[in-house]
Amino acid sequence: MIGTFKGGVHPPAKKELAKDKPIERMEIPDTVYVYMVNHAGAPAKVVVEKDQEVKTGQVIGEPGGFISAFVHSPVTGKVVDIKKMYHPITGRPVDTVIIQKTSDDEWEFLEGHGDYEKMDKEQILDLIKRAGIVGMGGAMFPTHVKLSPPPDKKVDTLIINGAECEPYLTIDYRTMMERTDELLTGIKIIKKVLSVDRVYIGVEDNKMGAIKKLREKMSSEGIEVVPLRTKYPQGSEKHLIYAITGRKVPRGGLPMDVGVVVQNVGTAVAIKEAVVDGKPLIERGLTVTGEAVKNPGNFIVRIGTPAKFVLDHVGLKENVERVLFGGPMMGIALRDINIPVMKGTSGITALPAKVTRSAEEMPCIRCSRCVMVCPMGLQPYLLVKLVQKKRHDDAAAIGLMDCIECGSCAFVCPSKIDHVRYIKLGKTVYKALRGAKR
Ligand code: SF4
Ligand code: SF4
Asked: Which pTM was predicted?
């Protein structure tokens, strides 16, 4: 059986640009720019000073709250400045530590790493926390928090997300193909922390090579590799859970409400590197791709590397119109290509005008295409209308906060309405108004 869900769209996959390019380690830039917001939740607090020498893996930011994460130096060098810099997700300036590389890596490894089989759950969770690991699929939710469900939530299933439904991106595919043993170790570590027996790895059926490779390595370990119908947004947690287990995460709920924890492929590998090798999260795999890139590929890049450095490495064509962190469906358009790579940056996509050019927004013609494709069962056209009229409570009543911002509605809209822009705005205003009423 091939798992799937109701709704969704079929954008051109464009995986062929980078899918057969093995992962390469990119050289390290002379200067890295490390945000203290490299995770969801409270910003980290800077714990280094200007002119201080730091080693690769040394803590430079400590968690600023319960939902927060450690941040480490991605290079061996000297802190040359600490200042506020524009952050592409928050849209605001955030504390940023700027480090100039002075030598090859001198590592500061995590204390207590080694044989996970001899560790108890708390030791493993502590290593994951001290390594600053966050969800690397894009959400950047601190992993130690996600792996610590409260006692009243009985988790019985782990799902590893290898769907990679976002067009263009291929780093998860390459990771599954090339780092299968590390992935397996990461999965075993997570399994031990959660004390679960049931483990699935979901992969879209346009990645049959990965499905075959994973089955060869994982089936004997009791891990079921589940092919999923290639459809966007198959990698959304709620849709992945439904496609694999048939369980429906309730409105406003979390995967753990239905006994499931989902972890991305890259996160599982990062967990292995932290727990077994003692490496904090200071680098990540990402795809650099798009029709405006001369030599697309998959790379391991240090956190804090400016996007421009990465793009110079692959070469840009002259027709570049837009650069995104991520892919075209859920990616963030960069207003400045010096913005640095974050822990959640799974790709950098550079597109020419012929791909990005969109017609002017026209009035809604009530065709209901957006309703038919919405994987959350929402009425996107109505959400837009209510946000435009500033009726945020009414928009919330029909599911504004349930929107996963997948962009499927905008993808099919003949009037070229950018639903996600209105919905994001509506969510921000609604949250602010709700906070003000308290
Ligand atoms: S309303 Fe939200 S969840 Fe539904 S299709 Fe649009 S972006 Fe996706
Ligand atoms: S797809 Fe566009 S035009 Fe059609 S109902 Fe939705 S918002 Fe209106």
From this structure: 0.94
Domain ranges of the chain: 16-109+280-354, 135-275, 369-437
User: Could you tell me where the beta strands, DSSP code E, fall in 133-249?
Assistant: 157-161, 198-204, 223-228
The CA distance from 209 to 225, in Å, is 12
Q: Please, is 270 exposed, middle or buried when counting C-beta atoms within 10 Å of its C-beta (0-12, 13-18, 19+)?
A: buried
Q: Could you tell me how many residues make up the chain? A: 438
Domain over 135-275 is classified CATH 3.40.50.300: no
- Pocket of ligand 1 contains residue 402 by CB under 6 Å: no
pLDDT tens by residue, 343-366: 999 999 999 987 765 678 899 999
pLDDT tens profile 402-418: 999 999 999 999 999 99
Please give the distance, rounded to the nearest whole angstrom, from the Cα atom of residue 380 to the centre of ligand 1: 6
Check if 243 has its Cβ closer than 6 Å to any atom of ligand 1: no
Distances (CA, A) of 140 to 108, 164, 225: 23, 16, 25
Report CA(380)–ligand 2 centroid distance (Å): 8
The model's confidence at residue 433, banded by pLDDT at 50, 70 and 90, is: confident
Ligand 1 center to residue 360 CA distance, Å?
20
Go through 204-242 and write b for each residue having 16 or more CB atoms within 10 A of its CB, e for each that does not: bbbbeebbebbbeebeeeebebbbbebbbbbbbbbbbbb
pLDDT over 60 (residue 141): yes
Of 329, 402, 404, the residue with max ligand 1 atoms within 8 A of its CB, to mutate for a pocket test, comes to 404
Residues 337 and 324: their CA atoms lie apart, in Å, by: 9
Indicate the top mutation candidate among 412, 419, 425, 427 to test ligand 1's pocket, ranked by most ligand atoms within 8 A of CB.
Answer: 419
Name the residue with tokens 């207003």.
Answer: 335
pLDDT-derived band at 436 (thresholds 50, 70, 90) equals low
Q: Which amino acid is at 50?
A: K
Ligand 1 contacts CB of residue 395 (under 6 A): no
pLDDT tens-digit series, residues 148-206: 999 999 999 999 999 999 999 999 999 999 999 999 999 999 999 999 999 999 999 99
Pairing of strands 283-289, 347-352: parallel
- Ligand 2 neighbours, Cβ below 6 Å, are 364-370, 380-381, 412-415, 417
For a pocket test of ligand 2, which of 361, 366, 408 has the largest count of ligand atoms closer than 8 A to its C-beta?
366
Query: b/e per residue, 4-22, with b = 16+ CB within 10 A?
Result: bbebbbebebbbebbbebe
